[in-house]
Amino acid sequence: MALRVLVVGGGLMGAAAAWRLSARGHRVTVLERFGPGHDRGSSYGTSRIFRVAYPEPSYTELALRALPLWRRLEEESGQSVLTLTGAVDHGSPETVSRLADVLAGAGRSARRLSPGEVSDRWPGLRADTTALYHPDAGRLHADDAVSALLKAAGQRGAEVRHGVGVTGIRHSRHTGDGVTVVTDAEEALTADAVVVAVGGWAPGFLPALVTGLPPMRVTQEQPLHFPVPDALDWPSFIHHPGAGFHQPGGVYGLGSVDGVKVGLHGVGPVVDPDHRDRTPDPAAVERLRAYAEEWLPGVAGTEPTSLTCLYTTTPDEDFVIDRQGPVTVLAGFSGHGFKFGPVIGDMAADLVEGQPGTARFALGRATPAR
Q1: pTM of whole model > 0.85?
Q2: Which DSSP symbol is given to 24?
């Protein structure tokens, strides 16, 4: 039976949910507060890492499910969004070994490399102690991915409305008798179900709708882009702390049309997404410059540009993908959720249709900090 579904939030996760719901024949309307391609949230820019190498096998499984969906999206939308360049994980031998074991268990290829072998193949990179190369990785173009998802959803019949803010959602948590969404134009829209995917606005928006939310920190992160001519030839890479490098959370990087992007993971200041200062923190910029000088000889002598974006992070860095009554929640993607977008859209569609969710991502779960 086709359902009437409202999707609040037109960033990556909302757009992915709209695509997968409309592909199943549901009548979908996306309500997005800002204009197309806006830079206020977590989904904008030119680059995000795609990888299947995770120390937790369930995330590797999710990434492997996402990969063919990204390719299907490219076919439906006519837009290229995913480029596989391979990836290099290096640093802590224990972490690298764990990644190799998980990839082997999933039947995916990977090869251990010495620091010298990394430098020979990618002169711009300096590897720390031990490295693992795996080919099922690369980069997603973030802006193009969101626009492709919304385009594909529209081709399936979804209505996408930009510039529409949601001021309230009314429903019964117990009866499941549908939902009413009120917009900033005092328009009341009714539906069988609603998917709420509001990124950094989730901690302020969701507690009135569902119970059992884990605490979430919204931070402003600020990677740098180093403009080098061979940026698109770089693999994605993650430097895991614990060997010759001890930055909590590590450092990630990848090539993009804007240069080689390099960032610290989840260390930015806590912010209000409506009132944040987008001015980069000079101390954080200097930390990344110092890192590049030591570990990235390929960007030497270049003047980087900085940008800011939002992380919405749970204590365990696991996501929130669950349903209560007619409300499905997609939240807390903790700086590593982008690569999974289409499969999370499928999971949202399952929840809307009444299928059970995944315990790891449930509301009300125990969330010990990592």
Answers
A1: yes
A2: T
